[in-house]
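User: I'll paste a sequence; please echo it back and then give the predicted structure.

Assistant: Echoing your sequence first, then the prediction.
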Amino acid sequence: MVDESVQESAILDDLDKRIIHGLVVDARIPFAKLAAVLDVSEQTVARRYRSLLQRGIIHVSGQVNVVPLGYARWILRIRSTPSAALRLGEALARLPELSWVSLLSTGSEIMCVSRARTAERRDALLLKIIPNAPQVTGLTAYEVMHGFEQDEDWPRFSRLFTADQLRMLGPGKPVQDAAVFDEPFALTREDEAMLAILARDGRAPYAQLATATGWSAPRVARRMSELVESGVLYFDLDFALERMGYAVRAAIWMRVRPADLAAVGSALATYAEVTYVGATTGPTTLTAALVCRDIAHLYRFVTERLGALDGIVDVEVTPSLRTFKQAQALMDTDRISLIR
């Protein structure tokens, strides 16, 4: 059987993929450092990066992790009348607290992730704004209890590097899954100004951030480091997956025996197709996001990968018919079109 993880798309060559991996490890890595790791010129790295942006293949954004702020992540499945599902998905994609907004294969259900940063806003979304929308016929909310750390973030291009190059890049920093302080971390007005810019451009220069905050560039750099170390700020890459040769996105909803939950989640986190896996409250106990080459690849994943894991009691597979928004970027069919 051909291993889909080593098949490549012609739209990206090896240098593009190595640049992408460098950004996955450190989204704000200086181009000079990345160029030294890759043994190319700084101008080449900068030119390739601009091309990836202009072609709508990637987008780098700074994201707020609500867990250290004392709040939870929620995965929402929102049922709609079929004729209104597209309009509902487009509207939900424009809410800043919502990300990963997709129309599921049922044709009348939207899945999204809520990262509301206050209890008031969480309650407004879950109890008023979404349920009261005229297109909505039902809502199921799953609170994320635990996110399983992956040994390498998708798209797993580290194989294109030597051991020395990987050491030069250094390790990536995983998203904190639990609060690291006795009290929730507090954000200042200046923090919010900086985070708003980073959400649109994760590589925004320190000078631009200094202007927005009224701080000096060195102070901005120090504060950004503090926010990253606290787990509040992390950097994410959005991808135009279809343009990279991946035709199928899917969510898998599993009921897993409690004694096997940690083992199954940890195993899934090692698979190349899995971009996220989390243990949740609700009617299912484990949710995973997948990226596959085609529907046949998805079938083999379900039968061969999932089928080999003990403890899974029930599985529901819901491919995405359309993705409206990823972590931060709005999508236009097969390319990143607009940053909110």
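The radius of gyration is 20 Å. The CA atoms of residues 250 and 319 lie 4 Å apart.
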